[in-house]
Design brief:
single chain; 6 helices; 172 residues; Four Helix Bundle (Hemerythrin (Met), subunit A); 75% helix; mainly alpha
Length: 172
């Protein structure tokens, strides 16, 4: 088994663990943080498999824009966090472990290929080929997803606004 295969399995475990932790948390900000770990792991996986453009898009679009959108929705909905002044140690351990694993795996991806043996087989496609294929065959899907995201954002804004107006009308 080559080092690339080991990195692949470790990245897959990192993605599964961070996503599993994300769906078991009650605090929505913690959910967003663990999903960012998952998205960064997916980006490293894309890079490992020879798709640096997809890795970059994963970081820019998902770990950047979508997570900021989720944070805005959480702030607009005014989700109440549990009343804990300091986070317990049991919540710091998984975050620190996932952070350390992400850093180590990211540094392993920077090792030159000549020192790792046989690299994984990759499918080579230029960014222009990918863009041409995507917008020629799947343009309707892209437009439907953008409309779906817009409807979700408007719905979250409406829910947050109605809760805010209900609180301001309450005399107590």
């Amino acid at each position: 088994m080559t080092l690339y295969a080991i990195i692949f399995y470790l990245l897959a475990a990192l993605i599964i663990i961070s996503t599993g932790i994300a769906i078991t948390r009650r605090n929505m900000v913690h959910v967003v943080i663990y999903l960012v770990f998952s998205f960064f792991g997916t980006a490293m996986l894309f890079y490992l498999l020879g798709a640096p453009l997809l890795a970059l898009l994963q970081i820019i679009i998902y770990a950047g824009a979508v997570m900021v959108l989720f944070l805005f929705i959480i702030m607009m909905l005014r989700v109440e966090a549990p009343e804990i002044s300091m986070f317990p140690f049991s919540q710091w351990v998984p975050a620190a472990a996932l952070c350390a694993a992400s850093v180590v795996l990211g540094l392993l991806l920077l090792i030159p290929e000549s020192q790792l043996g046989k690299p994984l087989e990759t499918a080579i496609a230029t960014p222009s080929d990918f863009g041409f294929y995507l917008f020629k065959r799947h343009w309707l899907t892209i437009e439907l997803v953008s409309i779906l995201l817009l409807v979700a954002l408007v719905g979250a804004f409406h829910l947050g606004k109605s809760k805010l107006s209900a609180k301001s009308e309450d005399p107590s």
